[in-house]
Amino acid sequence: MTLSTAPAAPPGPAASAPTHCPYCALQCAMTLTSTPHGATPVTVAGRAFPTNRGGLCKKGWTSAELLAAPGRLTTPLVREDGELRPATWEEALGRIVVTLVGIRREDGPDAVGVFGGGGLTNEKAYLLGKFARLALGTSRIDYNGRFCMSSAAAAGTRAFGVDRGLPFPVSDLDDADTILLLGSNVAATMPPLLSHLAGARAVGGLVVVDPRRSQTAELTADGAGLHLQPAPGTDLVLLLGLTHLVLAEGLADLPYLEARTSGFDAVRRSVAAWWPERVQAHTGVPVALLREVARRLARGRGTYILTGRGVEQHVDGTDTATAAINLALVLGLPGRPSSGYGTLTGQGNGQGGREHGQKCDQLPGYRKIADPAHRAAVAAVWGVDPKILPGPGVPAVELLGMMGAAGGIRALLVHGANVVVSGPDAGAIRAGLAALDLLVVCDFVLSETAALADVVLPVTQWAEEEGTMTNLEGRIIRRRRAIDPPAGVRSELDVLADLARRLDAPSTWPTDPAAVFDELARASAGGIADYSGLSHAVLDAQAGDGVAAHWPYPAGSTGTPRLFGERFGHDDGLARLVAVAARTAPHGIDAGEPFAPHAPGRLTLTTGRLLEHYQSGAQTRRVPELNAAQPRARAELHPATAARLGIVDGDRIRIRSSRGAVEVDARLTDGIRMDTVFLPFHFADEQCANLLTDAAVDPISAMPEFKRTAVIVTAITDGAEVAA
Ligand SMILES: Nc1nc2c(c(=O)[nH]1)N[C@H]1C(S)=C(S)[C@@H](COP(=O)(O)OP(=O)(O)OC[C@H]3O[C@@H](n4cnc5c(=O)[nH]c(N)nc54)[C@H](O)[C@@H]3O)O[C@H]1N2
Ligand SMILES: Nc1nc2c(c(=O)[nH]1)N[C@H]1C(S)=C(S)[C@@H](COP(=O)(O)OP(=O)(O)OC[C@H]3O[C@@H](n4cnc5c(=O)[nH]c(N)nc54)[C@H](O)[C@@H]3O)O[C@H]1N2
Ligand code: SF4
Ligand SMILES: [Mo]
């Protein structure tokens, strides 16, 4: 194995590189042109591609500013006397290795944890999973996709036997006349996707389910569609009620259910008691609207049901996504031309990031780490004895909860996540991070999590590296290098390989992204997410920049744009309807004083996104234009609620939950339910929404409850809190 301490000699930077946006899962195509003497090193232009059709959102247009943003990390940092100071790579890596070896000797390999991210390229996600299992020997790896796609993934796997967010190309939506969009605000989170909803809007068929009149719900105005405004966390009841109506009105597709599914009888029984008046009482959605939606869905000549985080980030998120799938199956949508069910994957590589082995129970190719045949297949590619592979680890929230605990983890390596802002119950996460013997963060900016680290390693970003990403349609695309990284920065593949060598790891540790991809492709062969027919060269040679490369893509294939046309992924080829039940008794957030439903100032907090910021804001708060547009967290409150609490627009307010408190500005809007308050989670410190959220998780997916927290809202005047 040969390794250098600096990145391999770079190919000369292309004057212009066809690549994709650094942010979300739509992975809009763009061309970067290097302008070596400008203040911003590259300029960005939208590029024709089936997903974005040349369009970009504000984050995409301004993405290159981050390449030259002040505060870009270019040297490793180590903590000394409580402060981070610059260090050489040799010192930083040496310190990591000495500490890890000591912890491993004292407490075993599971005392070291790894936390990955859905923004990592396929190559990095793959190598990180391999690094955890072979170089550290730990089972304890998981990633921020647990906070994102886990409920939808669990539901999709359970129903279809395959978890690919959209089992069809986004452009199929163009032909739809009816789209039910549950808990997704695409107008803010994936603006170029709106062009694919235009057909449905034109015929009045866009149905948006959101407790807020989001920018997407606004698109239903003037006859373009319908907006259902349920109380946060009541979507499961809503979906049971819609399925009840479809059955009661004789609108189910019985021949499809008979030919292509199993489990229908149990689902029929499970929705029997959810008559519309009862659903209205639980959700607040009027009976007439429920009936109209059920009929519209059944009569549509091209009907799609799509879910987003609004319905998935709940303690019953898997069951809610399952109820959405059941509704789709009862209507006969999945696997049919011009109709279907899908979930809108979020992070840039949210799809690929959940396929290559950074999930705690997983090996590459979407394989199971507990399955002996899967272990043997991957161990053969790695050239190791399957016995040395650890077993399943624990999911993200549990992993973070183990920091500093007896039998827990003493060191954590973070790659591509800003957990102290974006994890639930962020106050507890901060305390956990402080209790570690060693926190290592790889990043290109000093995120809030990096600022707490013992060692910070500066890595290449997006336009400085080669790789692949898998977008929300399961389409594998190429990320291309447009400029040289700044001196002093190393690629994450190089960092992992160097650490592996210092830790005397078995196997080989390639650092060239194309070579890592080739190994990933081999390791995925025969798995659910099979990439074995692909390579960087194949992707580069494809017309239109990898346009057709949807997985599964086994050797000799031309890819799979549409899944489920003939059969679903289970051995019997059938889709499974799974009966799910809604909880009706008060639970979790409603239980107990002082947060009981009628306590003064008591509202339900839900959280989400703004167009201008991405996730924890670590990147977008450093882009001047984006930060100027949204400099602070503002809590959306209904004017009637605000009046009752003595709050006027722009007031400073305090929001507290059983976990913590934040201080933010009030923004009054009649687009939100009177019982609900909305906070974006892009901000840090006293504005961090996750100081309020709870670490309770879905029992199946381990998704935390980000979208429903009991809070008390009070005005603050002259620094003093006003009693409600
Ligand atoms: N601008 C921007 N775009 C992004 C991102 C970003 O951070 N910023 N992140 C990317 C990522 S990783 C993801 S996962 C996607 C997420 O994309 P979305 O799922 O669109 O994002 P959210 O804003 O989290 O939630 C969507 C909507 O759910 C609503 N909601 C809240 N609670 C409930 C509820 O109980 N029921 C229902 N039905 N709706 C509810 C919120 O009001 C919100 O309008 O966006 C991606 N794109
Ligand atoms: N309250 C609330 N909380 C939420 C959500 C919500 O809706 N409400 N949504 C959840 C969801 S869906 C998600 S996806 C998570 C995301 O939450 P985070 O994990 O915090 O996501 P990011 O802000 O994208 O953090 C990525 C970090 O990695 C860095 N980074 C980017 N690319 C790379 C790379 O290639 N290598 C390395 N080493 N670093 C990189 C970035 O600079 C940034 O610091 O937040 C979750 N948290
Ligand atoms: S929609 Fe997503 S991928 Fe497209 S430009 Fe915006 S952030 Fe980038
Ligand atoms: Mo996400």
From TrEMBL:
Annotated CDD domains: MopB_CT_Fdh-Nap-like
Gene3D superfamilies in the record: 2.40.40.20, 3.40.50.740, ADC-like domains, Dimethylsulfoxide Reductase, domain 2
PROSITE patterns, A to Z: 4FE4S_MOW_BIS_MGD, MOLYBDOPTERIN_PROK_3
Domain of life, source organism: Bacteria
Signal peptide stretch: none
Domain 4Fe-4S Mo/W bis-MGD-type: 14-71
SMART domains given in the database record: Molybdop_Fe4S4
InterPro entries (alphabetical): Asp_de-COase-like_dom_sf, MoPterin_dinucl-bd_dom, Mopterin_OxRdtase, Mopterin_OxRdtase_4Fe-4S_dom, Mopterin_OxRdtase_prok_CS, Prok_molybdopt-oxidoreductase
Pfam families attached to this UniProt entry: Molybdop_Fe4S4, Molybdopterin, Molydop_binding
Record flagged with keyword Iron-sulfur: yes
Keywords: 4Fe-4S, Iron, Iron-sulfur, Metal-binding
Record's keyword annotation contains Membrane: no
SUPFAM superfamilies: ADC-like, Formate dehydrogenase/DMSO reductase, domains 1-3
Name of the featured protein: Molybdopterin oxidoreductase family protein
